[in-house]
Amino acid sequence: MDRIKRISFEVLDEHKSKLEYNGDVAYNNYLPNNHKKVIVAKDAIQSLVAGIEQRPTESYSSPSQFLPRGSKYDQIFNDNLKDDYRIILYPYLVKEFAKKSLKYGKQGGHKTKRYATLFFVAVYFRILHKKILESKADFKLDVRKLEPIFHSFKLNNRILKITDVIVTKFLEDTVVDDEIELANTKHNFFSQHVWNDTMLRVIDKKIRHEEEEIIALKKIANSLF
To answer: What is the pLDDT of residue 137?
Structure first.
């Protein structure tokens, strides 16, 4: 990736692959204060696959298949992937913000959200792409439109917070409870079931319930372009 500005992508080996960037005041708002500004490739690729590719179950269940030398690496890192650091950075920032500020992941303590970080990333980009940008194009083609949103932390904070509201209500839905029970464990649910057609209908229903706030956010976002 020749034109990456704040990030250099360097594949060292399977265990040392990493992304490094020098930091940006706006982007640092999404990160914990003690973040070392070094992004492990596994974390970045997991976030990209969950968010931009909209494949959170695969990203959660088997991230190694998308890493260098993995069976699905070439599906992601091919000629169709634009040479743009934002494709990799922005999904990662969403994941880190979810852990830092919204208590997702193992440190959050919530019995279900500890498994739901990558699902959160996928729902965030679904809202951004379909409802705020209202784009029917490939997610990757929208990446230039994301920069003013990610630089406007006040706006994006609201988008991230409404995503959390939607995910929380999704996880409280009885239909989702039944699907989790069928999956036997929450791990199985998020690795195999959470993005099936039935669950996507529930997600979209929860998104529609927050339409008033999303319309307001869309108007603000449109003013940035």
So the answer is: 75
